[in-house]
């Protein structure tokens, strides 16, 4: 899509932003690796040796992406994300952010039940008497599989104390 009249986030801005973010991540990896030692000793490589070079590889890839963004997309005005597409992305992303926040606060099982039920209600347009049992059923299924079957405790938040689970 190369419409110059459309308003939105340009592809050049997105490519530039992603290149800068991945470059910063690579720099953070390199910095952390240097703190724990990224050299070679008599015993072999230090703990940060391999991560340091992975960080350099990430920085190199970011620089390549940055150069390509300037060569291919600067000044084209190509729209990456317009208002209509931003609504679709937000309708997917915001519930996931809410799920993460609720899960951190009340635990994964409550977060999962609320996320499934709310997604079915608001995006799937299901009736509440279908969405609510589905959300509870998925959480119960996850509890049985992880807690009982695999014996892997997941984050339960205050629910654990409320029900006296452990």
Automatic annotation (TrEMBL):
It comes from the Bacteria. The keyword Nucleus does not apply. InterPro entries: DUF1468 (IPR009936). Signal peptide: none annotated. Residues 17-154 form the DUF1468 domain. It holds the Pfam family TctB. Keywords: Membrane, Transmembrane, Transmembrane helix. The chain crosses the membrane at residues 12-34, 49-67, 88-116, 128-146. Coiled coil: none annotated. This is Tripartite tricarboxylate transporter TctB family protein. It comes from Sinorhizobium numidicum.
